[in-house]
Amino acid sequence: MTPDWQIFCTVAAGVFGLLLGSFLNVCVYRIPRNISIVRPRSFCPHCERQIPWYDNLPLLSYANLKGRCRSCEEAIGVRYPLVELTTAVLFTGIAVRYGWTFLALKWALFESILVVLFCTDLEDRILPDELTLGGTVIGVIFAVFVMVPGSFGELLLVGSKAVWQSLFNAALGAMILAGPIWL
Question: Where are the alpha helices (DSSP H) in the chain?
Answer without folding.
Answer: 3-30, 60-64, 79-98, 102-124, 129-145, 151-156, 162-182
